[in-house]
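User: Design a sequence. Structure:
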């Protein structure tokens, strides 16, 4: 897949274009992308997505800016697996925020991307003060010779949004998040050194470092799957919490224990898929009670992992 940026913004071929942040690439997004790819094939043009980095709300309304479901790298990988041939990543800065909708259409869609077809959500807004909408696109399309295809962003019988995915994760509803995404939520993070507390009690963990803009599930213990070196999935018991057994308070940590695994993966980037919520965060009256519970958590994790198949989703490696 070709990625166009500010240094190389122009498409060599005519395109069918979808515009949006596409955070998480949930089932609604997948329907839009599927529609786009079908239009591109039918008209023999290049399927192209225009997306933004960072999220526009981070500049326009930072106090309300949403946490992200996926990294930009995950977004690009997902778009490629869905069949997109080309992505134009726009740097969302003050200049772009002030650009009028008409100027955006002329500069990006017509001049840079040579758009012949444009697919957007039916409630899509863009440009300075969000004055651009489907009606404006249709008027500009008639002038600049492209067709507009409004697309409702629905899931299975109901509207699906990135906001719904975030809300499900933040209340620990992994089943609902999985349904909305069409696959398990997958946290991408780098393994960093911790205080080795888990190793001391017989459950070594990989401590994960991720962006403060990344959404994580509610505090609790989860059954998960871990992708090592981009090639092999293994079971992982995940803790999202403050470790109340050892500390009165502290920052939220995400740690994963990989059963029967003792290789050095420090500094590596791994993907951690959340399969099921096992229980809430808790304190125990003794270290023995804690370790016994952790043993049960690991057993449940292995059981859930047996039903996990990354091949069931085009968006998981």
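Assistant: Done.
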């Amino acid at each position: 897949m070709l990625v166009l940026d500010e240094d190389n913004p122009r498409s060599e071929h005519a395109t069918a274009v979808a515009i949006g942040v596409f955070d998480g690439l949930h089932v609604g997004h997948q329907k839009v992308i599927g529609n786009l790819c079908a239009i591109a094939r039918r008209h023999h043009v290049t399927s192209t997505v225009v997306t933004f980095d960072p999220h526009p709300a981070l500049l326009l309304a930072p106090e309300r800016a949403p946490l992200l479901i996926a990294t930009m790298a995950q977004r690009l990988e997902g778009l490629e697996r869905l069949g997109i041939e080309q992505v134009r990543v726009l740097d969302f800065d003050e200049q772009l925020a002030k650009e009028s909708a008409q100027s955006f259409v002329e500069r990006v869609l017509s001049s840079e991307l040579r758009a012949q077809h444009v697919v957007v959500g039916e409630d899509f807004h863009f440009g300075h003060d969000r004055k651009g909408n489907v009606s404006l696109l249709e008027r500009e399309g008639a002038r600049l010779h492209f067709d507009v295809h409004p697309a409702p962003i629905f899931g299975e019988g109901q509207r699906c949004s990135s906001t719904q995915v975030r809300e499900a994760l933040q209340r620990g509803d992994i089943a609902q998040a999985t349904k909305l995404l069409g696959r398990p939520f997958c946290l991408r993070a780098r393994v960093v050194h911790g205080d080795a507390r888990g190793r001391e009690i017989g459950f070594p963990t990989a401590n994960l470092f991720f962006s403060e803009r990344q959404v994580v599930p509610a505090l609790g213990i989860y059954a998960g799957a871990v992708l090592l070196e981009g090639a092999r999935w293994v079971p992982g018991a995940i803790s999202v919490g403050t470790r109340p057994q050892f500390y009165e308070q502290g920052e939220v940590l995400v740690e994963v224990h990989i059963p029967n695994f003792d290789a050095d993966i420090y500094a590596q980037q791994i993907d951690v898929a959340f399969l099921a919520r096992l229980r809430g965060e808790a304190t125990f009256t003794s270290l023995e009670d804690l370790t016994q519970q952790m043993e049960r958590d690991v057993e449940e994790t292995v059981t859930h992992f047996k039903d996990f198949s990354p091949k069931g989703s085009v968006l998981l490696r």
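The CA atoms of residues 100 and 128 lie 5 Å apart. The domain at 162-312 is CATH 2.40.30.30 (Elongation Factor Tu (Ef-tu); domain 3).
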